[in-house]
Design goal:
By secondary structure, this protein is mainly alpha-helical. It has helices spanning 2-28, 51-67, 72-96, 103-119, 140-160, 167-185, 189-209, 218-235, 247-252, 254-269, 282-288, 293-318, and strands at residues 31-32, 47-48, 126-128, 135-137. The strands form 2 sheets. A two-stranded antiparallel sheet has the order 1-2. Helix 2 packs antiparallel against helix 3, helix 4 (103-119) crosses helix 5 (140-160) and helix 6 runs antiparallel to helix 7.
Length: 319
């Protein structure tokens, strides 16, 4: 009942906040405008970019009310999320003016948010040897490197996946529900609460973002969701992991991870900057192949669901 209440409250807060925030965005011209001859701009009219604030507020109000976790880790999570919200808002504001915000400041803030989480104790510290059942604790420098790479990587891939109505929100909801089931099965109450609250805010957002979208979350919202998903995995699925069960959170986030690894590799081969936006993600390729907008979202969400079910089966096999 506790988790059901958290899910409902987080969803309701987002549903109630998005409309007034959307009206405010239209008044101050904080909207994503369609551009002629721009393949990545699929919408036909200006769309408010303010859903990120509803997601952020709904997430933390619900989490604090239902978890009672007023700890340094919670403060670090809030601070890291706030930094991403701020830099994402600046990036989104530049986009409303038809400009691109430099990649380096965004990268530095995303890394800073990951560092804050690491020093708050949210980290990948080691794994169990499947043969000896001995816990192998990694050296601190390797813990730091792997943790930063994981948080930064997941934050980035969710942001890169936010190129089509309903896609990033749908993938985040499916991944969040998978991590909730994993955390609940493993008896990790705090991770389960983080995950179900994230599912609640994404479902509330999808009410307005399903095709055709009436609101966007922009970089501010997408990077925040990616950050929280990465933290949930570190705080839950990666804890007390064996070599094989490390695959569980990777499969749970499989679609954005594998798709964007392909994108990064392709941009590298083409001599492009990794952060240079283009239309090489799977959803754009499927559109060019002839699928409709709704069909693309359905296909990618179905693939994500299959990968997530695989991760749950892998967890059950490990138990």
């Amino acid at each position: 009942m506790l988790y059901a209440g958290a899910f409902i409250l987080s969803m309701v807060i987002v549903v109630l906040l998005i409309p007034p925030l959307g009206r405010l965005a239209l008044k101050i011209d904080f909207v994503d405008k369609p551009r002629a001859n721009e393949e990545r701009k699929l919408h036909k009219k200006p769309i408010p970019l303010t859903a990120s604030y509803a997601i952020f507020i709904g997430f933390f109000i619900t989490y604090l009310l239902f978890s009672g976790e007023y700890t340094w880790q919670t403060g670090a999570l809030f601070l890291g999320g706030l930094l991403l919200l701020i830099i994402g808002t600046i990036d989104d504001w530049f986009k409303t003016k038809g400009k691109d915000f430099p990649a380096m400041p965004k990268m530095m803030v995303q890394i800073s948010a990951a560092v804050i989480a690491f020093f708050a104790g949210i980290r990948f510290s080691g794994f169990y040897n499947p043969f000896s059942e001995e816990y192998i604790s990694l050296p601190i420098w390797l813990q730091f490197t792997l943790t930063i790479l994981w948080i930064f990587g997941v934050t980035t891939v969710i942001n890169f996946s936010d190129g089509m109505d309903g896609l990033a929100g749908g993938l985040s909801a499916i991944s969040g529900m998978t991590l909730f089931i994993v955390a609940l099965t493993m008896g990790q109450g705090n991770s389960a609460m983080l995950a179900i609250v994230l599912v609640g805010v994404t479902i509330g957002y999808l009410k307005f973002n399903k095709p055709p979208a009436r609101v966007f979350m922009g970089d501010a919202g997408a990077t925040f969701l990616g950050y929280i998903l990465a933290v949930i995995a570190l705080d839950g699925a990666f804890k007390q992991a064996t070599v094989l069960s490390i695959l569980i959170p990777i499969l749970a986030l499989g679609v954005p991870i594998f798709d964007n690894l392909f994108v990064v590799f392709k941009r590298f081969l083409d001599g492009k900057a990794i952060y240079q936006a283009d239309a090489s993600q799977a959803h754009y390729r499927l559109l060019r192949a002839g699928l409709s907008h709704k069909q693309v979202v359905a296909v990618l969400c179905l693939v994500s669901l299959c990968l997530c079910l695989s991760s749950i089966i892998l967890m059950l096999v490990q138990m």
